[in-house]
Design a protein that fits this description.
elongated; mainly alpha; 405 residues
Length: 405
């Protein structure tokens, strides 16, 4: 769900020089920016610069670039055991839930493997493994709801015709009362997000790792791989250029970290919008009622039925509410060790914080907007700087277990 889960941005100032005095004042204003400020949204100037940056490399034809892009994307799907790009999509896999969770582990491993190839540079991949592992854990919690449903159905379908209506009543007592997403809606959100982020970004790490940086930039500039919008395209291009500059400059950590976080900006602002927006209100309700759900103690059935049916169904009702509380706790938890969940980190929003809200999510990731207590991005940065050995061990663990957290 997410990370499982990141973008810091530099600002380029452009000036129209009307006088020496104005130019000097503008420069001084720029210099007053905090040197250690980790999260600044890029200006229009930065976006324009990313799109129009001059390079001595001449891009090959679109046909050549398409061939390279196909090669990289094939390599990405081969990494998780799906070499045939024409058949990799998951449109019909909802009925095979074990395959979805199996794929999640493969994606977690792919991110971890990429990070371990160059842990001083491939920082996004490490965080992605953590966030994707958290998605996998949340998937397991959602699957528990279907186990509860199976229990209810086994009890209620002993020759009676009220099986469907009984489970509907159980769901409505929890989902309907609190305005929550259904288990199916949660599953689709997690499945789509995990799959689409891998599809959208992992191929580019393969291209960069193979030393094909110039062609990677050309593929992005010429929309061989289409970004969701011009702003995301610009940020992605500038992020890769910043990573390359940092690596060429002796693995400059600050430069590399900033570039990796630009890639995460695209992931969070554009890629995750594909699935988060559909459930924004319901995810907000889940956050608001998390404690109510985790402490819910059941309710009486509206029918007079034998204890053989009543007691197990009442138990199922309690377990369903508690399961949604556990899902919420996992969904809103930080994938980074030492990080606080969104409620504890973001004092300005508290339990009104909503991971499906772009602003709330980005503030939590970057440590702005009142999110000052162990937010994700700064906590990840500190771990990379002070506990790199532990991070690498987490990734090696993922290669054997499928989970980095």
């Amino acid at each position: 769900m997410n990370f499982l889960c990141v973008v810091l941005i530099i600002t380029t100032f452009t000036f129209e020089v009307e006088s020496v005095s104005k130019s000097k004042n503008g420069l001084l204003r720029g210099l007053k920016k905090k040197k250690d400020q980790s999260v600044i949204d890029p200006s229009a100037g930065a976006i324009a610069a990313a799109n129009s940056a001059v390079s001595t490399y001449t891009c090959p034809s679109n046909d050549v670039l398409q061939g390279k892009y196909d090669e990289w994307t094939n390599a990405a799907w081969t990494e998780i055991g799906e070499p045939n790009v024409a058949h990799h999509r998951m449109a019909n896999l909802d009925m095979f839930r074990f395959l979805v969770t199996k794929r999640n582990k493969k994606i977690n491993k792919a991110y971890a493997k990429m990070f371990l190839k160059n842990p001083d540079v491939y920082l996004w991949s490490g965080m992605a493994s953590l966030a994707s592992s958290k998605v996998g854990h949340t998937m397991d919690l959602v699957r528990n709801i279907w186990k509860i449903q199976e229990t209810v159905n086994q009890i209620a379908c002993l020759g009676f015709d009220w099986c469907a209506s009984l489970w509907e009543w159980v769901q409505n007592k929890v989902i309907g009362a609190f305005g929550l997403p259904t288990a199916e809606e949660m599953w689709v959100m997690l499945r789509k997000g995990n799959y689409m982020i891998f599809e959208d970004i992992y191929w580019s790490w393969i291209a960069y790792d193979r030393g094909e940086f110039d062609d990677l930039i050309c593929v992005l500039q010429k929309d061989i791989h289409s970004s969701t919008d011009a702003q995301s395209k610009a940020k992605t291009i500038e992020g890769w250029k910043q990573i390359k500059r940092g690596q060429d400059n002796g693995n400059n950590f600050e430069e590399i970290f900033e570039g990796n976080l630009k890639l995460l900006w695209h992931e969070q602002h554009s890629a995750q919008t594909w699935f988060y927006n559909e459930l924004k209100q319901k995810i907000g309700n889940l956050a608001e009622h998390i404690e109510d759900l985790r402490t819910y103690d059941g309710d009486a059935l509206p029918w007079v039925v034998p204890d053989l049916i009543e007691k197990p169904v009442e138990k199922a009702l309690k377990e369903l509410a508690n399961a949604f509380g556990d899902i919420a706790a996992e969904l809103f938890a930080s994938p980074i060790k030492g990080g606080k969940n969104i409620f504890e980190s973001c004092h300005s929003t508290g339990h009104s914080a909503n991971v499906a809200d772009w602003t709330h999510r980005w503030n939590w990731i970057t440590g702005v907007g009142g999110c000052t207590d162990a937010p994700m991005g700064p906590t990840w940065k500190t771990r990379l700087q002070t506990k790199k050995a532990e991070v690498m061990q987490d990734m090696r663990t993922c290669l054997s277990t499928g989970f980095s957290i």
